[in-house]
Fold:
Amino acid sequence: MERRMKTIGIIGGMSCESTALYYNRLNVEARRRLGGLHSAECVIWSVDFARIERLQAAGDWDRAATELSRIAVALEHAGADILIIATNTMHKVADAVRHATRVPLIHIADATAAAIVSAGHRRPGLMATAYTMEQDFYVGALRAAGLEPLVPEADDRAETHRVIYDELCQGVVNEESRAAYEAIAARLIKRGADCMILGCTEVGMLLNQGNVAAPVFDTTLIHADAAQEAALAE
Structure:
């Protein structure tokens, strides 16, 4: 009997650039695991990120939580068996989304921490939005898994954040920004990071294992793979 694949509900669009990466990875993994013409069973709600970014900038996380929770319920009604929020930053409202539905939510920080612990690392450098680097909802989850995350110094955090919103989320890949990201990663490694978390789902557009001198953990790929694993679990 053919193995049944659960349906993955994706809250996407934050940004659309990384949601496309999620969709591609899910389908590549479904084909790799199952062969033939298989592809991922998924439903995607892609938001207008400009609206969400305004809520982030205003610190209106309650309204953002209400918006994403509404979408999660709609995805559940559309047949989703599993939910993912296809962004690191908006996991700030993950608890609200989780409580709004009856289907499991796969948390990106938990999946990433598990991958790092399994690989035997302890002090990950974290490059992400300022919200993710500076607030506790994400680094706290890493610490709860026994990790000791390192974030860039203030100027490097500001530049990392700027590049994400002004360039990567708009589909712009700038070689000067790639060089800046490589330098920021190198400074984290010099401070003692034993691996690097690409902690915004767009950071992989600039960094990868080829230009970082420590093991790289790309949260987009890790999260998508965790969702695919859950979709294929008995």
User: Anything to note?
Assistant: The longest strand covers residues 8-12. The two ends are 13 Å apart (CA to CA).
